[in-house]
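Form 7-S
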Amino acid sequence: MGRRLLWGALFLLLLALPAGGEEKVLRWAGDSEGGVPFMFNDPKDVKRLIGFEVDIVEAVAKILGRRPVFVNNSWDNLIPGLERKLYDVAINGLEVTPEHEQEVAFSIPYYHTFLQIAVRRDNQDIQKLEDLRGKVAGTLKQSYSYFVLKDLGKVDIRTYIVEANAYEDLANGRLDGTLFDAPIALYSAGFNPEVKFVGPPVGEIRYAMALRKEDKALLGEINAALVQLRDSGELRRIYDKWNLWNPLMAKEWNDFSPRKVATSAYDDWAEAHRPHLTLQKRLERYAGFLPIFGEAAVVTLKVSVTAMLLAMALGFLLAVIRVFGPKWASALAVAYIEAIRGTPVLIQLFFIFYGLPNVGIKLSPFLAGALGLGLNYAAYEAENYRAGLLAVPRGQMEAALGLSMTRWQALRHVVIPQAFRVVIPPVTNDFISLLKDSSLVSIITMVDLTKAYGQIAATYYDYFGTGIMVAAIYLLLGLPFVRLSRWAERRFSVQDREKQRHHENLMRGGWR
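Output:
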């Protein structure tokens, strides 16, 4: 049984191995969750990725003669993913800072901007950066704005991954103010009637594409492409389209001319976020999310099933070694179980995906996610199996050995089948837990159900309705296994006990 489970898990893992290919592509990465206006799902078509940086990458790739391929990664993992060679270029409002320049090479800056302070509409106390001292302020973690607030001192800094959440907290009174890049502020708070912008521009920010330091040839090609786009006026048209041209850009490029094109992308965004959406329009919008959530649910289910098969197989082997193996092997099994149960699964996923490449082991996101969850849950399944093995009366093994069976035959034909009947109910319960914990794989570039929820909710600023949808999908995914667990409890727990009591009664009657 354990061998079959192990081969099944390995087969599913091998199916996820990436196929080779020589197609000339430009693999680029960003974070589409909370990525407005850099990159985000089109409100008119949630399967389509749009944003001013998407336009820039596509224009650069066209000049380079490459097909752009997007890789979704969380913002704070963009540089680690670049070093791991998951993609060629990272672009997502990445700020050129001394800290970043120590790790990666930057292209020439393609955009200049500043930080913008935002407060609630009724706030009159905060008018400039220094007024944030002694206040609670929100910003993006490990960003230029974070270090500005830190250097300011005496500020209770709250960091966010999704910028829109900070503005929601500001409107709800959880924050006194926010400090974000001006493009983020314009798109995330510009439509919120409870929020206003105050104070002069803070600092100066330069955005550039990040590459590995050894990719000097590609860096040269990208720089040449950006210069060509700047000189041809294409970059200016992109910024006008998204309403992002500002005085800093005009001064940097010495271009004070009127707008080249209409602010069509900005106007579309404003229209999509017009308040007081009717119930019918809202339901139509939710119906449009179903294909995205459906694809993400399949990813969640695949990684969960693969991880659980691996957990069951490895857990079974660990339990057998711990209970029946030699002392040294039993000690190793105990050490593994305690080490895995004593560390967070999130740390284990980070280690497998970002740490192992340092020793030459590079796994795809699916393999890393399934392996990380499988290895983690194997420790818990091992304890389930151990309880099942110990629940089998010792006399069963002794009787089997007395019938001239070998130790392995006794385990295989007598002890293990009885142990499996005991552990099936808790194992099915663990799968339900694993299904929910699979949401953690979103931190290693996988677009699972939780990641899809974050992307869509951040695009529409709707965490309530879409949250209910995703919760319902998780419930539907887990419901069959809930029913299986209840059936297993009735079938293998209650009936077995009744049969055992009936057998014991018959035996007592026979002896009388």
